Write a sequence for this structure.
């Protein structure tokens, strides 16, 4: 899906329109959600201000493996090492293609309107400490998977959480 102009776009500082969504959860289906700094970016009447989400992030290079992106983003945003004992990062082999929210189009190369998002799950032991990156998130909470899905701003994030029981070993 990458255009021939992808490499120069990266060099110019544009975000790569390929990202990961990582649903961090415990074996008993408690899901970690993070509250994004700056809210939703929406303005005007009826704008929502709270943006709760799972870990997300774009590739740093076009050839970066999605699994590497997932590991890096989890570590950057939560301080959780997905390679630590008791943790299990799983590629769900699901991809979402969605329109980039208008308030964030300026981050991408002109003409880019869609993002490909690869979905992962990260099972962590109950009680895993979370250390937020304050530039990205202001709070975190653990919720039952159904409630977590209801709290997400992004519909693709909500849908991924609703898939969680199918990916957890029992």
């Amino acid at each position: 899906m990458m255009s021939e102009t992808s490499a120069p776009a990266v060099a110019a500082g544009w975000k790569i329109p390929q990202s990961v969504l990582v649903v961090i959860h415990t074996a008993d289906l408690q899901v970690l959600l993070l509250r994004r700094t700056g809210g939703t970016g929406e303005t005007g009447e009826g704008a929502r201000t709270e943006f709760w989400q799972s870990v997300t992030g774009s590739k740093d290079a076009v050839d970066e493996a999605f699994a590497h992106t997932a590991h890096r983003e989890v570590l950057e945003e939560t301080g959780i090492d997905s390679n630590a004992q008791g943790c299990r990062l799983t590629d769900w082999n699901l991809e979402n293609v969605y329109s980039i929210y208008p308030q964030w189009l300026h981050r991408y190369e002109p003409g880019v309107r869609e993002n490909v998002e690869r979905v992962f799950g990260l099972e962590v032991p109950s009680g895993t400490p979370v250390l937020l990156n304050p530039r990205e998130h202001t709070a975190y909470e653990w919720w039952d998977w159904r409630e977590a899905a209801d709290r997400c701003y992004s519909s693709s994030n909500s849908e991924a959480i609703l898939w969680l029981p199918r990916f957890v070993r029992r």
About this structure: Helices lie at 6-11, 66-78, 145-151, 155-167. DSSP finds four helices and seven strands in the chain. The first strand starts at residue 18 and ends at 25. Residues 66-78 form the longest helix (13 residues).
